[in-house]
Structure formats: structure tokens, C-alpha cells
Write a structure and sequence with these properties.
The complex is a heterodimer of chains A (about 270) and B (about 675).
Chain A: H1 17-50, H2 68-95, E1 109-116, E2 119-124, E3 129-132, E4 134-138, E5 143-149, E6 154-158, E7 162-167, E8 173-177, E9 183-189, E10 201-207, H3 209-220, E11 225-226, H4 228-235, E12 244-246, E13 248-249, H5 253-259
Parallel strand pairs in A: 1-5, 4-10, 11-13
Antiparallel strand pairs in A: 1-2, 2-3, 3-12, 5-8, 6-7, 6-9, 9-10
Chain B: H1 11-14, H2 20-42, H3 46-54, H4 59-90, H5 100-134, H6 143-162, H7 190-218, H8 231-263, H9 276-309, H10 317-330, H11 346-374, H12 383-406, H13 408-414, H14 418-448, H15 454-480, H16 496-525, H17 567-574, E1 587-590, H18 595-611, H19 615-633, E2 639-642, H20 644-660
Antiparallel strand pairs in B: 1-2
Classes of the chains: A alpha+beta (about 270), B mainly alpha (about 675).
């Protein structure tokens, strides 16, 4: 992650349309809710001052305990806010469904992500390469991720680009992300998974076309091949695994990792 | 299965030499226990402690013991918290001062203790002391079962405490998600301690729920219609319904996890057809109602406190009742919002998101009803009132961040981050703990006959609330900066200033806890000045203030006649309070029994043996529990008769006190 100018608060300064839309929904909801929150603040302090027993100026009406009008307001105003937010929630949740393909000029780049103790393996099936703890893609293409785990449950998260999703053994989840322009971000596992969890992070690089090609040719020059033996060695628990590349990947490796958990007893 | 005599218990595995900090904790735990035992022995008080307290079936005494347990566990849970804050304050690019194994145990034990062994006993204790009195009853419906519940809870707490001395505690967090908590990834005893502590205390909680529901439905004084009950009784009813519907789900879920771990079954494992999704769904089917189990009683307490110290009838009583029951019902419809990021379809996530936001409506209504109760009231700032006001302001912030997390796309960003940690502490500290502390300071004179020092109480409030903001607002910010929860070390220097502020907040909260301790000590020492002989120090509005303080074992010599909400206030207005009958009737009261303590003790032995796979002892303890329960059920004489003349004697004393105070 060296030489990257990392964003301090990635959720407030998103670098892609998904994270941006998610953040804007957050902001909108805050503003809508201030309709309720601000009056509560004002009323609490005002009433505590005005009706204090020691010299408050307010009238004292000990037997006043109901007003239909007030009752209606305090049920209807929060209900209206929930109707507004509910509509927003319904439409935005469908629009920002992590399984939904993003519309962009070119075909998305497909990447298979596998959570291991305590690192991330990324397989690029179309390109025949794989990387550990570094996710690299061209900035003009959307990213179509298939995610699983070869260990306990993890949660895959690149805060600058979009929300997280669980990685679970024997199952696959999907995530679609897009970076606005070239940049360097941080990704990590968000779900506690054991003692290497704090270091279970990865670098994310969205590169311009030429730089991506340069990266790809570097990966392709790697002497390492990801066959089953190499995979098993990699999958053994390790903390702070250095970024590394594989120039070849055993066919159907990703599928076989899911299948080995799918309803069969371990050998 | 392990068939050795001592299972997998060996000295090398058992003692906490993996961390000097853990050794220190173990020493403190053992010394604490020895100090208590030593003090009781030195003062020759064993007979008193045994006959008057441990074996007591009096709901007030059981309630007091619950609260004592809660306060002790509050201190233990807080020590965990401040250790985590200290670790994160220093662990930039370093391992900090805690070994990783130990940090992970601490965040697991902090959550487990605060929820199961601080909050649950605190609310159960306050309910026990107050609810029977508020409905004008002489006891709970099942006094013996009440004692069993208490000692099962204490046994569970004991298991968590002893895990620090013998073996280790879970590192799987208070939620214990598999497959991490399964035998494949966690073969040690830690997760088993967590499972059996929850099993044992969870059964106690289910029994408490049954007890409270039957008490409220069957034991109300004449005229106490449901719609005349104080709000605290309503919230207790709602909480108890949630307890008996939700807790069995937790009991079953953790039992299935235990089967996975012990018998190599595959409910939740990665392999063999197991599926962690089932665990997570089942866990939160308990877990979300649990939030309301914790918060609703506090809402009831706030209702009492606000109305008493604003000297005004509660605004919108019916609204508050409907809102309470609506929250209870809705709490079962939202569990999926704890895992929007599991990959469910947009429709499913949106459904549960909207259901979650709907809960904000009745909750908002409650807040405004309390505010309207303050409106045109005459407010005195007793510490309990300060807790209530601090709660209202702080809770709406937590409510707002809760609605944000209910929006699935926003949750994708904030889930599992410190923002989430800040949110649920923002709900549970003001929403539950402040309420219990308000109740503690409000009802203390009822339980002990003297009031708590108000100055130290106010000091505690200010330290707690300032400490709360310092400790948790930075965590909201860190969530925006992408910090995950449960990180024992980190490499991003921009996080550290916020973690330092959070650690400072924990120190301020420590000052708050110190104030609570000093308050208790000062008040006990000045108890003669602070004596309340009227039984009604705050011009109370509900029936618990009609009894003497502390109340006679039977609470009410004559069952009160209720004609309105705020029954006591109504009696005062009509001058019908403190009316003496010509003759007192005989009253039946439960006979004390050690069976509850015995069952609790055996449950502890059972849990400990199950943790260490000492199966023959576990089986024997289980049989002994059943035998004790059976033997107890064959006892015909479980009550004794307090004759009318005895009652009159006690009442004469009470009325003499009332006369001396000029109340009559």
C-alpha cells in the first residue's frame, strides 16, 4: 500500500458511484430525521429550564395529561418520516443491490475472491492470473466479484468503492464495484476471524489501461503457478502475507473450493 | 468423547499463564471471592446471610441480590471495557500490552457479561423488587421458582468469572458465530464456557419471564385493571413475553452449537452440510427481541421517574401502552437487519429494513410522551431525573444512527465497523443502563429505608454522560474512517487520536463508577440522617410508595383498592390513604428454602463439568438437579401463616413512624 495517497475517511469521500450513492442515502436520511431529532433536543432543554421547580416561569398543570391533537402529531409526524424513508429505502435497496450488474461502457472484469486465514486470494479467470492481498483492475471497467471463503466467515469490504458482503465457505456472494478514476484504496475483512484478523487487509488499485496491462504482464511473468499443491500451501494460516502473484491457475479452482464444503463430509 | 476421569482438565491447560494480565485478573477474582467469604466468616454472619438472604423467597430480597450481582458484574464488565480502550489507544503499529489471545477473550467476555450478567440481572432485580408492589400484590406468583431463577443466573455468572481462573473464555465475541466458534477452529474450552454460562442463566431468565407474566396477570390488587397499571408493569409484561418467546431460541441455538462441538454434528459447520446462516438467523431471532428485553423495562422506569419528578400525570398513558406493546410485537419482525450483508435479495433486505424503521415510530411516540409530561410540570432534578433527561437527548442520537443502519445500502458501509459499536452502545447505555441506574437511585429508599446521597448521584450522572460522549462519538467517526470492530492492533495513524479520546472517555466513566461506589458508602454511613420512615420520600404516585420502607414481608397488610391510574396519587387526593382496618387478617408467606441455592450450585457444577468434558460429574449434577426439584415438589408445607396479631404488631410500628413524620 506504499506510495498510495490513501483516503482518510473513505466513507465520506467515496471514489466510485456505488459508495457515493450509499453515502448520499446516509446523508439524506440524516437530514430527514433532523425533523424529529432537533425538536427533541430543543424541547428537552427548554422544558427542563422553563418548568424547573426552583424558579421556572412555566405554568403548572398537574392534571393535564391528554390532548388528541398532540397525540395525533406525535404519531403522525414520525410515521410520515418513516413513509418517506421507507420509499427511499425500497428504491435505493433495489438500485444498490450488490448482485446487480453495473452499467458501464465495457464488459465488467470478473474476479473471484477467496478469504483465507488471514489473507485474500484474487483469481482473474479471464486473464489466467491470480494475486494475493492485492486487487488490481482497470479504472474504466466495472468489477464483478464472486466471493467465497475457505475458512470461517469473513466480510469483504472496500470502503472507498462500496459496501461490504460476507464471504462464506461452501457459498458464493456477489459484489459489483466501479472506480471513477485511477486510484489506490484499502480493502479488508470486517468480520473478526482470529488472531491474524487485524492484518487481513489488501491493496486495491484501479489503474489506467496501460498501467493495468503493465501490471498484468508482470503478474504473468511470475514463476509461481496456482495448482492444488500451491493452493494448499497458501491456504495454511499466515499473518501479513506479502503481495504475490501467480501466472497460472488450476482450472475450476474457485468452484472446487466451494464444492468441497457443499454438503459433503470432509475426507 | 473424552472418557478420562477429569475430562480434558489438566493443570497445564487450565491456569492462565499465557498472559500476565490474565494472571492478574485471576488473582483479583480469587481474592475478591476470598475477601467476601472471609468477611462473612470474620463477622460471623454466615447464619444471617444464609437464612435471611440466600434461602429467602421474598421477592424484594431476591431482587436486591439480583441487583448486587448486576453491580459486581458491571464492574467486571467495565474493567474489560477500559482494558480494550487502553489496548486500542496504544496499539498503533504495535501489539499493545495485551497478548492477542487475551484481547479476543476480553471483547467476548465484555459483551457476554454486560448483556447476560449485568443488564439482565439488573432489570430482573428491579422488576422483582417493584412490580409486585406496584400492582398491589403480596408476592410473585411462584416464589420458589424466583429463587431458582436467581441462582441459575448466579451460576452462569460464576462460570464466566471462573473461566478467567481455570481455562480461558471464548474468543468468538458475544455472538459466537460459527464456524469460528465450532470445534474445528476453536477446539479449546473458551466457547464451551460461553455456551454453558448462557444455557444455565438462559433457563433462569425463561423461568423469570413466566413468573412475571403470571404475577402481573393473576396477582393484581382489586380494581387494578390492566389499563390502570403503572407503565413499568406494562413494560415488564412486554419484556416477560419477549423473554419466554425469545430465550428458548437462544437455548436451542447454543445447544445445537454444543452438539456440533461435542458430538461432531453438523448444524453450523463448514463441512458435512452444516450452515452458519441457520445459526445467525436463529441467534438474532433471540437477539433482536433481547434488545427490547433490555430497553423496555428502562422505558418503564423513565415513565415512573419523569412523572414523579415532574409532579404530573404521565402524558398519553394509552399511547405509551400501545407503543410498548407495538414495540414488543415488532421486535420479532426485524432480526435480519443484523446481517443485511449476508447476500439476501433486495426485496428481503428492504422488507426487514422498513420493518426496522417502523419500530422508530412507537419509540418516537414514547419520547414525545415523556417530553409532554415534562411540559407544564414542576421539575425537580433528582439524580433519577437527570438520568432520564440525559437519556432522552442521547437516545435520539442512537435512534437516528439506528435508522441509518436500517437502510441496507448504508448498512453495507457501516456494518461491522466501530460505527455499529457506537450505535448499540448509544442505545444500551442511555437506553438501558441509565434507566436501571435511575431506578436504582429512585427505589433504593424503598428497598433499604434510607435515601442515596444526591450529590454523589449527580456526580455519577455527569461523569457517565460526559464519559459516554467522549468514549463513543469518536467511534462513530472511526466508522466513517473504515475501522473494523474487534481490532486489537492497527496500522493507520489517523485513527489513533480518536482512540485516545475514546480511552479518555472510559476514564471519565471510571470516575462515574467511582462516584456510584462512594455514593453507596457515604449513604450507608449517613443512613440515620437519610432515613425515610414514611415509605414515600418523593411524593410517589404509584402503589409501591404505599408500603413501608423496607416493606413488610407481605408488602400490604390490606390489599389496596385501586380506582385510577397513579393509584396512590388518587388515594392521596381523596384522603383514602393510610386507612387502618379494624382487624388484620392472617397472611400466608413462603417458607425459606435452600433448594434454589442447591439447584444453582449443581447447575454450576454441571456447567463446569460440561466445559471440561467431565461427563460423569455432569450427569450426576443433572440427576441431582432433577432429584432436588422432585423432592421439593413433594413438600406439602411450603407456606407459613403470619397471624393477624403479628401483622398488627408490624403495622403498629409502621403507623407510629408515619405519625412521627407527620404524615397522618
Amino acid at each position: 500500500m506504499d506510495a498510495c495517497n490513501l483516503i482518510r475517511a473513505p466513507i465520506l469521500h467515496p471514489a466510485g458511484p456505488v459508495a457515493l450513492a450509499e453515502r448520499d442515502l446516509l446523508f439524506t436520511a440524516v437530514f430527514v430525521m433532523l425533523v424529529v431529532v432537533v425538536p427533541v433536543f430543543v424541547m428537552t432543554f427548554l422544558f427542563a429550564w422553563r418548568y424547573r421547580a426552583s424558579g421556572g416561569r412555566g405554568r403548572y398543570t398537574p392534571n393535564w395529561y391528554y390532548s388528541g391533537k398532540v397525540d395525533a402529531i406525535i404519531w403522525l409526524v414520525p410515521a410520515l418520516i418513516v413513509v418517506v424513508l421507507g420509499y427511499l429505502l425500497w428504491t435505493e435497496t433495489h438500485k444498490l443491490d450488490p448482485y446487480r450488474q453495473l452499467v458501464s461502457g465495457t464488459e465488467p472484469l470478473e474476479v473471484e475472491a477467496i478469504a483465507q486465514d488471514w489473507k485474500w486470494l484474487f483469481i482473474y479467470p479471464e486473464l489466467g492470473v491470480a494475486s494475493v492481498n492485492e486487487l488490481v483492475f482497470p479504472s474504466n471497467r466495472s468489477l464483478s466479484l464472486k466471493i467465497t471463503s475457505d475458512t470461517v466467515m469473513n466480510s469483504f469490504f472496500i470502503p472507498a468503492l462500496g459496501g461490504q458482503i460476507y464471504a462464506m465457505a461452501g457459498m458464493q456472494t456477489r459484489l459489483h464495484l466501479l472506480a471513477d478514476k485511477p486510484g489506490c484504496f484499502r480493502g479488508r475483512n470486517m468480520q473478526y476471524s482470529g488472531h491474524g484478523f487485524p492484518e487481513q487487509r489488501f491493496a486495491v488499485r484501479a489503474l489506467a489501461k496501460e498501467e493495468f496491462d503493465a501490471w498484468l504482464s508482470r503478474a504473468r511473468k511470475s514463476p509461481e503457478k496456482l495448482d492444488m499443491a500451491a493452493y494448499r500451501a497458501l491456504a495454511a494460516p499466515s499473518v501479513d502475507h506479502p503481495v504475490s502473484y501467480y501466472s497460472g491457475v488450476a482450472p475450476r479452482l474457485y468452484d472446487s473450493i466451494i464444492e468441497k464444503y457443499a454438503g459433503k463430509h470432509p475426507e | 468423547m473424552d472418557m478420562r476421569i477429569l475430562g480434558r482438565l489438566t493443570a497445564a491447560d487450565a491456569l492462565p499463564f499465557y498472559s500476565w494480565v490474565a494472571v492478574g485478573g485471576a488473582v483479583v477474582t480469587v481474592l475478591g471471592l476470598l475477601t467476601i467469604v472471609g468477611a462473612i466468616t470474620f463477622l460471623r454472619k454466615w447464619r444471617y446471610v444464609w437464612t435471611e438472604w440466600m434461602t429467602s423467597l421474598d421477592h424484594k430480597r431476591i431482587g436486591i441480590m439480583y441487583v448486587m450481582l448486576a453491580l459486581v458484574m458491571l464492574v467486571r464488565g467495565f474493567v474489560d471495557a477500559i482494558m480494550m480502550r487502553a489496548q486500542q489507544a496504544v496499539a498503533l503499529n504495535s501489539t499493545g500490552y495485551l497478548p492477542p489471545e487475551h484481547f479476543d477473550q476480553i471483547f467476548s467476555s465484555h459483551g457476554t457479561i454486560m448483556i447476560f450478567f449485568m443488564a439482565m440481572p439488573f432489570l430482573t432485580g428491579l422488576i422483582n423488587i417493584i412490580v409486585p408492589q406496584q400492582i398491589g400484590a403480596r408476592d410473585v406468583a411462584f416464589p420458589f421458582m424466583n429463587s431458582v431463577s436467581l441462582w441459575l443466573t448466579a451460576a452462569g455468572a460464576g462460570l464466566v468469572l471462573i473461566s478467567l481462573v481455570v481455562g480461558r473464555f471464548s474468543t468468538a465475541g458475544w455472538t459466537g458465530y460459527p464456524p469460528y466458534s465450532g470445534a474445528e477452529y476453536n477446539p479449546g474450552v473458551g466457547v464451551d464456557y460461553w455456551i454453558w454460562a448462557i444455557q444455565v442463566s438462559g433457563i433462569g431468565t425463561t423461568l423469570s419471564g413466566i413468573n412475571f407474566i403470571v404475577t402481573i396477570l393473576k396477582r393484581r390488587a382489586p380494581g387494578m385493571k390492566l389499563m390502570r397499571m403503572p407503565l413499568f408493569c406494562w413494560t415488564t409484561l412486554a419484556t416477560s413475553i419477549l423473554m419466554i418467546f425469545a430465550f428458548p431460541a437462544l437455548t436451542v441455538t447454543t445447544a445445537l452449537l454444543a452438539l456440533d462441538r461435542i458430538f461432531d454434528m453438523h448444524f453450523f459447520t463448514n463441512a458435512g452440510g452444516g450452515n452458519l446462516m441457520n445459526y445467525i438467523n436463529l441467534f438474532w431471532i433471540w437477539g433482536h427481541p433481547e434488545v427490547y428485553i433490555l430497553i423496555l423495562p428502562a422505558f418503564g422506569i423513565y415513565s415512573s421517574v419523569v412523572s414523579t419528578f415532574a409532579a404530573k400525570r404521565l402524558f398519553g398513558y394509552k399511547s405509551l401502552v400501545y407503543a410498548t406493546m407495538a414495540i414488543a410485537l415488532l421486535s420479532f419482525t426485524v432480526w435480519l437487519h443484523h446481517f443485511f450483508t449476508m447476500g439476501a435479495g433486495a426485496g428481503v433486505n428492504a422488507f426487514f429494513g422498513i420493518a426496522t424503521m417502523v419500530i422508530a415510530v412507537p419509540t418516537g411516540v414514547k419520547v414525545f410522551d415523556w417530553l409532554m409530561t415534562l411540559f407544564r410540570g414542576r421539575i425537580t432534578f433528582h439524580p433519577s431525573m437527570l438520568w432520564a433527561l440525559g437519556f432522552i437527548v442521547t437516545f435520539v442520537i442512537g435512534g437516528m444512527t439506528g435508522v441509518l443502519l436500517a437502510l441496507p445500502p448504508a448498512d453495507y458501509l457501516m456494518h461491522n465497523s466501530t460505527f455499529l459499536v457506537a450505535h448499540f452502545h448509544n442505545m444500551l447505555i442511555p437506553g438501558a443502563l441509565f434507566g436501571y441506574l435511575a431506578g436504582y437511585m429512585f427505589w433504593f429508599p424503598k428497598a433499604f429505608g434510607f435515601t442515596l446521597d444526591e450529590r454523589w448521584g449527580k456526580g455519577a450522572f455527569w461523569c457517565w454522560i460526559i464519559g459516554f460522549y467522549l468514549a463513543f462519538m469518536p467511534l462513530y467517526v472511526l466508522g466513517f474512517m473504515g475501522m473494523a470492530r474487534r481490532m486489537e492492533r492497527y496500522e493507520i495513524s489517523a485513527w489513533q487520536p480518536f482512540l485516545l479520546i475514546a480511552a479518555l472517555g472510559a476514564v471519565v466513566i471510571l470516575a462515574g463508577i467511582t462516584c456510584l461506589v462512594i455514593q453507596l458508602v457515604v449513604s450507608i454511613r449517613k443512613r440515620n440522617e437519610k432515613r425515610d420512615l414514611t415509605g414515600d420520600p418523593w411524593d410517589g404516585r404509584t402503589l409501591e410508595w404505599l408500603t413501608s420502607s423496607p416493606p413488610a414481608p407481605y408488602n400490604f397488610a390490606v390489599l389496596p383498592q385501586v380506582r385510577d391510574i397513579d393509584a396512590l396519587h388518587d388515594m392521596k387526593r381523596h384522603g383514602s390513604v393510610y386507612v387502618r382496618p379494624k382487624q388484620y387478617e392472617d397472611i400466608l408467606l413462603p417458607i425459606n428454602t435452600g433448594a434454589g441455592v442447591l439447584i444453582g450450585g449443581l447447575a454450576f457444577v454441571f456447567g463446569f463439568s460440561a466445559v471440561w468434558h467431565i461427563w460423569w460429574v455432569a450427569a450426576a449434577a443433572l440427576l441431582a438437579i432433577l432429584a432436588t426439584a422432585a423432592a421439593r415438589s413433594f413438600r406439602d408445607k411450603t407456606e407459613f401463616c403470619l397471624t393477624g396479631s403479628k401483622v398488627q404488631e408490624i403495622e403498629n410500628r409502621h403507623f407510629r413512624d408515619l405519625a412521627r413524620e407527620g404524615v397522618l
